[in-house]
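Board notes, transcribed. Complex of a protein with magnesium ion.
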Amino acid sequence: MSLAIDALLLEREDGVRLLGPLTLHLAPGERLGLVGESGSGKSLLAQALFGVLPSGVRQAGGKFTAFGLPLDRPGKERDRIRGARMAWVPQDPRQALNPLLTLAQHLALLPGIHREESPSATQRRLAPLLERLGLPAGVDFSRRLPHQISGGQRQRICLAMALSCDPELLVLDEPTTALDPLAQKAFLDLVLDLQRERSLGFLWITHDLGLGSQACDRLLVLYGGEAVESGPAARLLSAPRHPYTARLLAAARRQPSSESGFLPAPQDRPAGCPFQPRCPDLHENCNHWRPWQGSPHDGLRCERPLEPAPRA
Ligand SMILES: Nc1ncnc2c1ncn2[C@@H]1O[C@H](COP(=O)(O)OP(=O)(O)OP(=O)(O)O)[C@@H](O)[C@H]1O
Ligand SMILES: [Mg+2]
C-alpha cells in the first residue's frame, strides 16, 4: 500500500469537526480522485498528509502511513518520504513558491535536499521535463521570480518541483484551476503519461466529477468533510448511488437543476448525514449517523440510496 489513511479526524481548535473520520487506501500506481465542492475538506486532507495544517486546525484522531511508515511520527525515514517519494502540488502555488527565489532555485530545492544534487545537474536532468511541461528553456526564464510568470506557468513549475525527485506518489490539489481548457487537457495528458511511464500513483483533488473521472480509476466523494460514496469512476458516472454524487454528476453534465446554495459552514452541519439540508429524498433516519457500508474501496453512506441502474 503506498498510502493508508485510517479514521483521520481534523477539527477546528474550538472542537468543530472539519474532516472525517476518513479512511482511504491507495495501492502503488493507483489513480484515486477525491471529489467534493468548495469547503468539503479536500485541501485540509492534503495539508495534513504533508504536515502543514493551517493554524486553527488540529488532527484530533486517526493515523496515516506512506509506504508502510507512519507519517505522523518524526524521523529520518519520514523526512525522506515527504518531497521525495511522495510529493504535493498545492492548490495555491503561493504555498509552494518563495517570492524571493528564482525558478531555477525552486527546481533545485528538493533534489538538493534529497539527492544532494548540484543545481546545474538538476537543471540538466529536468530540462526534458520542463520541455514536456511547455515551459521555456533558457536562462531568461529560469532566472525569473514567481511573480514574473503567469498563473498557469506557476502551476506547472509546482508540478515540475513535485516531480523533481521522481516520486512514487503525487497529491495534486486542483492542479488545473488556473489553466484554460486546452492547457488543462495538456496537463491531464502529461500526468497520465507520467503515471503510465513511471507507475506513479496519485491522489487528484478536484471539485469536478467529470475531470476526476477522466483522470482516475476510482473516486471518493466528500461532502461536508465526510466520505459519502466511493467506487470505480466508471460506476459512479453510470450509476451514482448517493444523491450528492448524482448532483455532482448533473453539475458536471451541466444539466439544469432547481437546487442551489452552498455547503453549510462546519458549525452548522446537522447531526447525521451532512447532505440533509439539500437532499431531495429525506428519511427520518437521515439525522442519525450512518456507518459506512462496504470497503473504503467501494462503499456508501446513505439511508436512501438511489437504485442501482438496471443491468443491460
Ligand atoms: N485555518 C483554518 N481555521 C479554521 N477553519 C479552517 C481553516 N482552514 C480551513 N478551514 C475550514 O475547513 C473546511 C475545509 O476547508 P478546505 O480548504 O479543506 O476546503 P476545500 O474542499 O479544499 O475547498 P476548495 O474547493 O474551495 O479549495 C472549510 O469549512 C474551511 O472554512
Ligand atoms: Mg481546496
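The mean pLDDT is 91. The CA atoms of residues 58 and 221 lie 22 Å apart.
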